[in-house]
User: Fold this.
Amino acid sequence: MQSKIDKRLIPEQEALLKSLIGKKVDKIRHDRFDYSNVSYERVTIFCEDEVYELNNGVEALDFMWDDFGEETVGVFKFFKTEDKGIDYDYGCEGYPAQVETPVEKTLIDVVLVEDHVEAFSRASGDRFSQYDYVKGVILVFEGIKYSFVRDIWFSDDIVIYKGNNPEEKIGDPDEDWEPGEEVYYTNVRKMRSLK
Assistant:
């Protein structure tokens, strides 16, 4: 049986994200970086009196390999939301409170980092599964970029980088998908501008 799993943004979410291009992003709310530059499951984006959430919640998927069955993996989603205020109890036990980082710049592009993975049987060489997913989202402003990425393909953490080339800090897809005794993978990464 061959499976094909597509967990890229659905068209409505992608269109909503694209609609922010040309608008001023006021601030971004995320977990405080006490131990690392990670926010658990969500980042809130404030843009011209509207509030949006980039969410990386877990979903159970009937996954690529039959012998494991379901696997829980982080899946990026983007939607409009209400400002719930800083949630001091949000996240795993012991996670720090959230903070707000001022941006106050006009968004000039959004880049989706998308990975395409194919799984093959070592014994037969046959492809038995494909998986397409969003590895991360990069917000591009004049002179600075913010990237929000999964450290590894199944993670629900969002690693945040800020700088001129934060995409250079996103790991190689081959590091996410190490071959096993019975399976090997081919990986293709695409950086896709929504502009």
The CA atoms of residues 23 and 106 lie 5 Å apart. The two ends are 38 Å apart (CA to CA). DSSP finds two helices and 13 strands in the chain.
